[in-house]
Please model this.
Amino acid sequence: MEAKAIPLLSPYTMGRFRLSHRVVHAPLTRSRCYNSLPQEHVSLYYSQRASEGGLIIAEATGISETAQGYPNTPGIWTREQVEAWKPVVEGVHRKGGVFFCQIWHVGRASTYGFDGVEIHCAFGYLIEQFMKDSVNDRTDKYGGSVENRCRFALEVIQATADEIGSDRVGVRLSPYSNCLDCWDSDPDALGLYMIQAMNKLGVLYCSMVEPEVVKVEDKVQIPYKLLHFRKAFAGTFIVAGGYNREEGNKAISEGYTDLVAYGKWFLANPDLPKRFELNASFEQVLLPDVTVMIQAFCSEDSDVLLCFARFLFYDLVTLVHWEQNAADCREVDYEPSDSGNAGKEKISARDPWNSKEFCLRF
Ligand SMILES: Cc1cc2nc3c(=O)[nH]c(=O)nc-3n(C[C@H](O)[C@H](O)[C@H](O)COP(=O)(O)O)c2cc1C
Model:
């Protein structure tokens, strides 16, 4: 297959960081950091997806005990956790990647060897609960007007910038989302207010999520609703939400964004930039049935939740590699393929709910 120059693979300078391409690994919660500690398989996961000059944003990482909301998500508030992140960061740096840690909740921040941090102000978590008027019912200086509702977010951003420099701080926003019942009656005003304030603080990048993506005749329709935000923001703009190779190229060549973050595709295709380069085929992501997901969430059985995580976070290659002694998995040795079409190895594991075999091919 012949490599072709495409907009997604053109270089880009983001402040102090020289990116060799524009395919960003979106933050993806994986629920595999037992005791909130990133383990060996976490290192494997991120180094598999690292590339020379490629930006990787790590999964949402709690910076205090009270920040945690999901089982087995990582932390970065104890010395032990910081030490555990070090080999993960080193693995990405060894491959020449630029690595940001997405933090949620509030508090002190240091980069701990990461190149920067992304502050999670999206998807209905703590900071967004302040920002959006469907849930913020405060009557003090953190509630009411858009200025008041954004105050907390901006204080967190300011405090982080003071600590590590605004040229190492990214912010993720989702003004149009309605996650965890958190929505706003005027998402445009909210987003623009945040962006203007972030400009004043010199924030390095704004990563923004498209409104819900719909499929029409099996083809993803990107809403392309973020242009006014992109135009207003002075730093690097990153979009995410349903992008594929074609849409990513289009968004960059038309100046709709600087960089494109890929979530599910990066999970299932660790060598995603290479596959884009070669226009190779892609592994499809597997989503569990909705009923199964609900069952898992309602269950208090941690094994079920873990299985749920395995299904949802379909990067089985990493998991199977790590759990090579587990009875229901077999050892695989995965290397992203130079040809971009690794399609050789077959991995299977048992579906705990209906005992059917499911497979991912690589
Ligand atoms: C399994 C999974 C975990 C996610 N975890 C996070 C997260 O920790 N932080 C975050 O900001 N977004 C998270 N997201 C959202 C993704 O970063 C991304 O915005 C979303 O998947 C849409 O992009 P895609 O269509 O390329 O997957 C997650 C999405 C998925 C599917």
